C-alpha cells in the first residue's frame, strides 16, 4: 500500500528518493511487466507535482506505441525522430525540453503541455521505448529530475523483461 501522507512537506530530492523507494517495492513484489509499468506511471503522477501526463511509449513495428499512462488520452503512435519522444528514442538521449513549442517537430498530443522530459528505455543496447512526462508549466523539469528519472528507468530495467511489452530496435 502506498502512503503519500507527509509528501507535501518533502523537497524535490526527498520526493524523488521516495519515488525510487516506492518503485523498488513495487517491482520487487510483482513480476508482471504490464502491472509494474502501470503502477510506475501512477506513482510518478501521484508524487511529482505539476504534471498533466506521465507514461510510456513502447517500440512496436518501428514506431512508438502508447503504453500505460496517467492523464488525458494521448497520441497512439509516434514515428521515430518525430517530436520529443521520437527524438529521445532515435538519439538514445534524455530530452529535457523547457518549452515544447520551440522544439522542432513537436507533436501536440495535449495542447496544455508546455514542457517535457523524456527518458529513453534502453537495455542490452536495444531501445524498447520511452518514459514521457509532460507539464502545463514552462521550464517545469530540472536536471535533478532528469537524473532521477534516468535512475527510475535503470530500476525498471533491472526487473522488467521489455520483450513482454515491445519488440525493441537495435
Structural commentary:
The chain is of the alpha+beta class and 170 residues long. It has one domain: 2-Layer Sandwich (Beta-Lactamase), CATH 3.30.450.40. It has four helices and six strands; from the N terminus they run ααβββαβββα. The chain has a six-stranded antiparallel sheet with strand order 3-2-1-6-5-4, sandwiched between helices. Strand 5 and strand 6 form a beta hairpin. 36% of the residues are buried. The mean pLDDT is 93.
State which percent range the strand residues make up. Answer: 15-25%
H-E order? HHEEEHEEEH
If you average the pLDDT, what whole number results?
Answer: 93
What is the CATH superfamily label?
Answer: GAF domain
CATH topology type: Beta-Lactamase
Q: Kindly give the count of domains.
A: 1
Q: Tell me, what's the shape?
A: globular
Largest sheet composition: 6 strands, antiparallel
CATH hierarchy class name: Alpha Beta
Low-confidence regions: none
Annotation, overall tally of beta strands: 6
Kindly report the spatial arrangement of strands forming the biggest sheet. 3-2-1-6-5-4
Number of helices: 4
Cα radius of gyration in angstroms: 15 Å
Going by helix content, strand content and strand pairing, the class is alpha+beta
CATH architecture: 2-Layer Sandwich
Alpha-carbon distance between the termini? Answer: 37 Å
Helix content: 25-40%
